[in-house]
């Protein structure tokens, strides 16, 4: 009986792990695209109607997706380096949520840290980022190496 339980547990965790990896893929590709100034890869991780927002001292700032992609593509390789730690992933059907902490480096120098909250949707069998909201701060940062 214990062997059967161990087999179920092993395969169950493998299947769920695959779902998490699939959800994490566009998030990781976002930061790879930023680091490499790769507009094509960057565009591929988002839905066409994606929303990008940042919580500021003055409220919530919304950034246009096309402007964000254009701005990243003008950077040099390795200019933008956002290092993340995935804190949690939740999946329900074609909806997923990913929460990360991060440290951001600009041209090799630490700039700021914060948290990202991603909402992803599964379209045509592929996870895409629909919504990002983040915080940004310079104090109380734990740099991610």
Describe the structure.
The chain has three helices and six strands; from the N terminus they run ααββαββββ. By secondary structure, the chain is an alpha+beta fold. Strands 2-1-6-5-4-3 form a six-stranded mixed beta sheet. About 9% of the residues have low confidence.
Short description:
The chain is of the alpha+beta class and 145 residues long.
Considering the chains and any ligands shown, give keywords for the structure.
145 residues, alpha+beta, six-stranded mixed beta sheet, 3 helices, 6 strands
Topology:
Blueprint: H1 2-36, H2 39-44, E1 46-56, E2 59-63, H3 65-73, E3 80-92, E4 95-106, E5 109-123, E6 126-135
Parallel strand pairs: 1-6
Antiparallel strand pairs: 1-2, 3-4, 4-5, 5-6
Estimated share of beta-strand residues: over 45%
Annotation, overall tally of beta strands: 6
Mean pLDDT: 90
Strand order of the largest sheet: 2-1-6-5-4-3
Query: Could you say which overall geometry the principal axes of the C-alpha atoms support?
Result: globular
Q: Rg to the nearest angstrom?
A: 17 Å
Number of helices: 3
User: Could you give a short account of the major beta sheet?
Assistant: 6 strands, mixed
* Distance N to C terminus: 44 Å
Task: Name the helix and strand elements from N-terminus to C-terminus, one letter apiece.
Answer: HHEEHEEEE
Contiguous uncertain segments of 5+ residues: 4-16
How does the helix and strand content classify structurally? alpha+beta
Helix content: 25-40%
